[in-house]
Amino acid sequence: MAARSARFIAFCLAFLALASAAPARELPRPETFTLRNGMQVVVIPDRRAPVVTHMVWYRVGAADEPRGHSGIAHFFEHLMFKGTRTIPPGEFSRQIARNGGDENAFTSWDYTAYHVRIARDRLDLVMRMEADRMRNLRYSDETFLSERDVIVEERRQRTDNNPGAILGERMRAMLWPHHPYGTPIVGWLHEINTLDRASAEAFYETWYAPNNAILVIAGDISAEELRPLAERYYGRLRPTRDLPSRTWVSDPPSIGPMRVTHRDEKVRQPSMTRMYRAISYGTDTGRQAHALDVAIEVLGGSETSRIYRALVEDQRIAVSAGASSNASGLGGGSVSVWATPADGVSLETVEAALDAVIAEYLRDGPTEVELQRAKSSLSAAAIYARDSQESLANIYGASLAQGESIDDVVNWANDISAVTREEALTLARGTLDIDSSVTGWLLPLEAAQ
Amino acid sequence: MAARSARFIAFCLAFLALASAAPARELPRPETFTLRNGMQVVVIPDRRAPVVTHMVWYRVGAADEPRGHSGIAHFFEHLMFKGTRTIPPGEFSRQIARNGGDENAFTSWDYTAYHVRIARDRLDLVMRMEADRMRNLRYSDETFLSERDVIVEERRQRTDNNPGAILGERMRAMLWPHHPYGTPIVGWLHEINTLDRASAEAFYETWYAPNNAILVIAGDISAEELRPLAERYYGRLRPTRDLPSRTWVSDPPSIGPMRVTHRDEKVRQPSMTRMYRAISYGTDTGRQAHALDVAIEVLGGSETSRIYRALVEDQRIAVSAGASSNASGLGGGSVSVWATPADGVSLETVEAALDAVIAEYLRDGPTEVELQRAKSSLSAAAIYARDSQESLANIYGASLAQGESIDDVVNWANDISAVTREEALTLARGTLDIDSSVTGWLLPLEAAQ
User: What is the pTM of this model?
Assistant: First the structure.
């Protein structure tokens, strides 16, 4: 359920839509207003079909959990379906399904989001139920405990049975030794196992509040039409007084390259990944995060990238290789580079080749052609997103929850287009520093590496 | 000021006193009583001179600091000399000096200790002042801020100017990614810089209390003589109600070997260190920590150890090499192995040789001769400690603050003697697991490693 950011999803989709020039780069600008209790409302009209996407984004995620209680934020992604004073357990999902809608929820370090897509004439129902569970959640001890077991099982399946996930989790813990981004969203197993009701409820009472939420509605509705509904359902909810500021501890400076090797019998194909600490849209100034996204797109974002061409096509030493930036975090970002060696090739060999590609890139920077191709590819994401009600809602919700403004989102593709070679090179050089990196090797149990 | 444990100091001294058989292995058993406010008192009579060692051990240390406020525990090691309602700033130390005493203080993850040695007839003065500053500390904002600068400077000199200390700090952060032992005692620089008075005072009010303190007095006094003094000075202090339990977050299981390399222009001599997570006297059952201490003494505790003989004497590839156990932590321990290569020898070479010594040791375990030598060497520490008033006070204070009982301390050398080859080998095998280790390389800036 650890959602990749909306932006990242949009980037991936962009590869399907490699438009080289953008006729209308800007995203549609939503209408917004704020309720008296502090709840922000964002409306993205889309009249193509009598459908709405209703999302509530809470400005709380795994990074806000009290130390020793990892997993609480994600736990609520489950508990929120367990009923309120007036809605019995499971009824929320049954009502949505019975009315032809579908729902989803996801948790990141920065936010927790609840998502329903439904026919426009059922919006009242959704708003009534969603507002109800923002403040009035009720569940029994049995429900709490059995849902905790469900989460333990979820962790077992998604993380503990997945050597790559285990490795990634620990690489994050090394990259962020102190900052809460080093703690897995799902929680450390031994802490999930002891999550208690009292601390869960304190978390909910504090953070699940209208003044900590953003309502994003995309679809067949205008702000004018929505406002009375928003006031009726959400406007009467009590805000949290003295909402805590989201201040997270930060990391000491890096001191040198870190490495970790994980071996597991389930590994069939060795692979290597390196993560670097990076700035993010939430922490940068000016166009730095844009320049980083462009720089990393050139380095490893596609099959025309430096890394892919060198390792997979020219040298034929890797079956896959690339790089990606994750610059959406409220508290910082990261860049990953990775390679899976071809049969008979060692991890040392692919890592050395990857290092050589990076060194050359940091010396010369992107060519003008590469720069343009990367910018077009990224901008295409924005164009593609215009066509998806859900995408747009996701982009606005995640961006606002991660410290950006509506203007930032609207102008994103223009800002990407404005990135210069020098800006991209400066960000690449500042970020791809081996001294701020963790390199992880994933190997079978008996490999002779 | 991060004190090595009293036991470790005693071990080092033991090399000077390699007694092979112990006529009286047991440490003298102190007299103890508890004041009505919960303060524990331990008296170790020693009539050789009209001198007393007066120590107050608080069961609070760096591991108890609130997240994001690292350095607070150590900060009090400074603030405690800044005066009370009745004692002006600096007066505590001046009084002690004027009366021919000397004083010291030290902070670990597990405890903070305040130490005065003085003539017996000045004990009243010490107890009055020490009791006063347990509850009545007063300092100005200016003092707080200027002392914070002093600590920043202390950190700069001891850690930030010392590449080996920087590396060790980060190796700990990797070994304990979640447990507070991964945070340096002195604090992360950026957190020391923002320590605030309010959280410092909350820390003091909570933890500096008679029901969280152990008074250890060694010297020319009996429990009977001490009791009225203890009641007069400490007995009337208010205990902390609802003293928090010292429950620390624990780490997820290890997933594989970790490495970190630190290069600095100040490094003249490359070196490597590996740390393994281990049990401790505070976390073990039975004689496990004793067996670990014996096993590591055989492996690398002296110039007759496996590691030293192989790397320094036989192969001549290292100028120093060894191993040590730190099994005194309340929340867990560690084992370190290290080597400094001879000129022209690479770190790869010494590390491979070290690995080979460890592999052979884990296969065969210690010989009976090695076992006896290690046990004698460790037991000698206890014999030597009998002769030092300060040593005895340190051993009892640290051990009690770290979760051991007086019996544990009294019987320590006997328990060491009882360790079998099998016990030592089991602990060595359970501990020296590369998958639970961090290896650190320290290199000059331009080394071609």
Answer: 0.91
Residue B418 to chain A, least CA–CA distance (Å): 35
Does A245 contact B at CB distance below 8 Å?
no
Contacts of residue A168 in chain B, CB cutoff 8 Å? Answer: none
Looking at chain B from residue 300 to 329, which residues have their Cβ under 8 Å from any Cβ of chain A? none
> Is B249 in contact with A182 (Cβ distance < 8 A)?
no
Contacts of B261 in chain A (CB under 8 A): 256-257
Phi, psi of B279 (to 5 degrees): -75, 175
Per-residue pLDDT of B217-251, as tens digits, reads 999 999 999 999 999 999 999 999 999 999 999 99
pLDDT exceeds cutoff 70 at B13: no
What pLDDT does residue A400 have?
Answer: 96
Pick from B437, B260, B248: nearest CA to B347: B260
Pick from B309, B305, B278: nearest CA to B371 = B305
CA neighbor of B4 nearest in space, from B82, B109, B77, B81: B109
Residue of B nearest to A163 (CA): B255
Between CA B449 and CA A28 the distance in angstroms is: 55
Contacts of A257 in chain B (CB under 8 A): 260-261
What are B131-190's pLDDT values in tens digits?
999 999 999 999 999 999 999 999 999 999 999 999 999 999 999 999 999 999 999 999
pLDDT on residue A20: 39
CA pair distance B344, B346, nearest whole angstrom: 6
**Domain architecture of chain A: domains with CATH:** 6-15+23-233 (3.30.830.10), 258-443 (3.30.830.10)
Q: Do B262 and A250 touch (CB under 8 A)?
A: no
- The complex's ipTM works out to 0.89
